[in-house]
Amino acid sequence: MTEHPSMDDMRRERLTGPGFDAREYQAGRAEAILAIELAEAIRERRIELGLTQTQLAERAGLRQPEVSRLESGGGTPTIGMLERLAHALEVRFVARFEKVDAA
Description:
- By secondary structure, the chain is mostly helical.
- It is built from 5 helices and no strands.
């Protein structure tokens, strides 16, 4: 019987193999982290307010599947969508650029 490689082995091979672009990988990783942080912030505030996803969607002029997708870290919200969500969540939406520490 042929033994299949583990997920760790496959990941290691992909990260060290030809065509791997570390900058692209890091950019994708950073984007995923931001999506997860946004998802957690939306979900936590919604729960604090005692709202269901459907109720939040109604308040924000969205559909429940859109809220669900955002809360799971999927999709890319527009600035308008973030502003509507902030209003519905009774918070202020703030976007800013910060200098990166030169390390």
